UniProtKB/TrEMBL annotation:
This is acetate--CoA ligase. InterPro entries: AMP-bd_C (IPR025110), AMP-bd_C_sf (IPR045851), AMP-binding_CS (IPR020845), AMP-dep_synth/lig_dom (IPR000873), ANL_N_sf (IPR042099). Pfam families: AMP-binding (PF00501), AMP-binding_C (PF13193). Keywords: Acetylation, ATP-binding, Ligase, Nucleotide-binding. It comes from the Bacteria. Gene3D superfamilies: 3.30.300.30, N-terminal domain of ligase-like. GO terms for molecular function: acetate-CoA ligase activity; ATP binding.
């Protein structure tokens, strides 16, 4: 269907005066020092994410307000007020202390979206323990790799996830001292008796611990969160964030999500990924709103029912979910009414223009795309409530964020040399001027890789984009081979390595293949060792092997056999060529192809 290039907002789209009402003036006046001053802080210049998110409210008029409301299909809702969340997180911090775990230690969480996960993350942050969330749909290998690389001291997980995904590879995680087990539903009252060495029953420990507040001593530049993200080559990279990131979480919750105190908010992202952590867990609490947490997986009818019955006012979701809702048809949405809903936003992958318009038809409101990544720690570019949308565009840089488009002067320079492209409409790499508080402060154990991300004071995002004459940014693609499937970033190398462990596989090359719902699906090409025959049984065996090791979220959905994979003369698999051939696109420059023309 032909749609106009601009979606003009009407009075019906704006149900509350927005925080960002005059873009140019507010961008001009914005200073991060002022944004920092909007938080309470700690005596002597300290800062702590969990204190701002929980304790600050628990000590004031919001003490009795519901902070988190957990819902599940077959269980009654569980609610935690700000006051109760403060007590539970104090208690969890005391449990860690009693185990000799203190500031600087690394805690991993692997659990569904449950009270235990939220309490563990916030309690650990209070104590200055560095937190890494893991996605519960990961298989044993991605879990073991991340805990090993991140030198995890403590893991909080459920008894079933532990038995299925952690115990089999525990020998590969030598630093892991304690595994704190919780029940599947994350209720901190259900005990999980265990006599396995190195595992403890968290509920029993919580019951025995005091809920005396622990001393909070973190400084703005102390490490807080370690998020693993994927690159084109090598193992996943641990992007390190500090407590000062809370300033960005708060400011962007205000400008990009337009959170107001009375909001009932729902972020559908899993806390195993950065969106679920920054905007599922931290930002809504910073604004003292009530946040819905659904333990179930996607279901169109359930989601509409929740939006309606939970009276959600601000909804933050993702393109894959929106495409699945679109597939289910507008009629399903129309069986519900969403009078409370006033703002809908999306992140993680390109949002099709059609989806922006669909929002208005099905939900009564357009969908607002925004852009950021693990390394930026918070939303950088956004469509916000007050402004017209150019469907297909990611929006404009938020106050305090300076973005530009750059071109590289040399292909592989170290440090990279870039030039800012001033005229609008030209495609190049999206870059951000450093200075926003949630910028990652390093890749764990990889200073060289970190330095390669910066050209002077510009952070290079690895995304290709263009800016139009009105200052809107348009996503063009990734500059590397990383795959975005259902909003999850997947490193081809991790998938290839798991496939190579299969005795029949000689080599593997993995690409993202465009998919109408997932954005991209993971497709693998493999060549076989002598003595193995390419047939359906082997293909199914490879799919099963990958799924078992990597988990459903990361494993390839399609596998094809090739006699040999295209490689460069230096031996690197040319994923770009595999992709071009798969999609029937021009093969581009093949001069470095092994056996190709010079
Ligand atoms: P992650 O670090 O997993 O959050 O993934 C970040 C990457 O997701 C970005 O570098 C982009 O490639 C992609 N991405 C995030 N938001 C958007 C968006 N609104 N439009 C297009 N791509 C996006």
């Amino acid at each position: 269907m032909d749609r106009p290039a601009i979606l003009h907002k009407t009075a019906a789209d704006l149900r509350l005066p927005p925080h960002l009402a005059d873009y140019a003036a507010q961008c001009r006046a914005f200073r991060w020092e002022d944004a920092r001053a909007a938080l309470q802080g700690l005596p002597g210049g300290g800062l702590n994410i969990a204190f701002e998110a929980v304790d600050r409210h628990a000590a004031g008029p919001l003490r009795e307000r519901i902070a988190l409301r957990f819902v599940a299909r077959d269980a009654p809702p569980v609610e935690l007020s700000y006051g109760e969340l403060a007590r539970q997180t104090h208690r969890f911090a005391q449990v860690l202390r009693s185990l000799g775990v203190g500031p600087g230690a690394h805690l991993f969480v692997l659990a569904g979206r449950t009270p235990a996960l939220h309490v563990a993350v916030l309690g650990a942050l209070k104590l200055g323990v560095v937190v890494t969330p893991l996605f519960s749909a990961f298989g044993p290998e991605p879990i073991a790799t991340r805990i090993r690389l991140g030198r995890g001291d403590v893991l909080v997980t459920t008894d079933t996830l532990y038995a299925r995904k952690v115990r089999p590879l525990r020998a590969q995680m030598p630093t892991l001292r304690h595994v704190l087990l919780v029940a599947e539903d994350g209720a901190l009252a259900s005990t999980i008796p265990t006599d396995e060495p190195g595992t403890l029953d968290l509920a029993a420990r919580m019951a025995a611990a005091s809920d005396e507040p622990v001393a909070i001593t973190t400084r703005p530049d102390d490490p807080a969160l370690l998020h693993f993200t994927s690159g084109t080559t090598g193992t996943p990279k641990g992007a390190l964030h500090v407590h000062d990131a809370v300033v960005t979480h708060h400011a962007t919750g205000r400008y990009a999500l337009d959170l107001h105190p009375e909001d009932r908010y729902w972020c559908t992202a899993d806390p195993g990924w950065v969106t679920g952590m920054s905007y599922g867990l931290i930002a809504p609490l910073l604004h003292g709103v009530t946040s819905l947490v659904d333990r179930e997986e996607f279901d169109a009818e359930r989601w509409y029912t929740l939006l309606e019955s939970e009276r959600i006012s601000v909804w933050y979701t993702a393109p894959t979910a929106i495409r699945m809702l679109m597939k289910a048809g507008v009629a399903l949405a129309r069986r519900h009414a969403f009078p409370a809903l006033r703002f809908v936003a999306s992140v993680g992958e390109p949002l099709n223009p059609e989806a922006v318009w669909w929002g208005r038809e099905a939900l009564g409101l357009p969908i607002h795309d925004n852009w950021w990544q693990t390394e930026t720690g918070g939303i950088m570019i956004a469509n916000t409530p007050a402004f017209d949308i150019k469907p297909g565009s990611m929006g404009r840089p938020l106050p305090g964020v300076e973005a530009c488009i750059v071109e590289h002067l040399e292909a592989e320079g170290a440090p990279p040399q870039v030039r800012v492209i001033e005229p609008p409409g030209v495609e190049g790499e999206l870059a951000l001027r450093r200075g926003w508080p949630s910028m990652f402060r390093g890749y764990l154990d990889n200073e060289v890789r970190y330095r390669k991300c910066f050209a002077g004071d510009l952070y290079l995002t690895g995304d290709l984009a263009r800016r139009d004459a009105d200052g809107y940014y348009w996503f063009v693609g990734r500059a590397d081979d990383v795959i975005k499937s259902a909003g999850h970033l997947i490193g081809p190398f991790e998938v290839e390595s798991a496939l190579m462990e299969h005795p029949a596989v000689a080599e593997a090359g993995v690409i993202g293949k465009p998919d109408p719902v997932l954005g991209e699906l993971v497709k693998a090409f493999v060549s076989l060792r002598a003595g193995h025959e390419a047939n359906e049984a082997l293909r199914l065996s490879l799919l099963a092997h990958a799924r078992l090791r990597l988990g459903a979220a990361v494993a390839p959905k399609e596998i094809a056999f090739l006699p040999a994979l295209p490689r460069t003369r230096s031996g690197k698999i040319m994923r770009r060529l595999l992709k071009a051939r798969e999609l029937g696109l021009p093969e581009g420059d093949t001069s470095t192809l092994e056996g190709g023309s010079p």
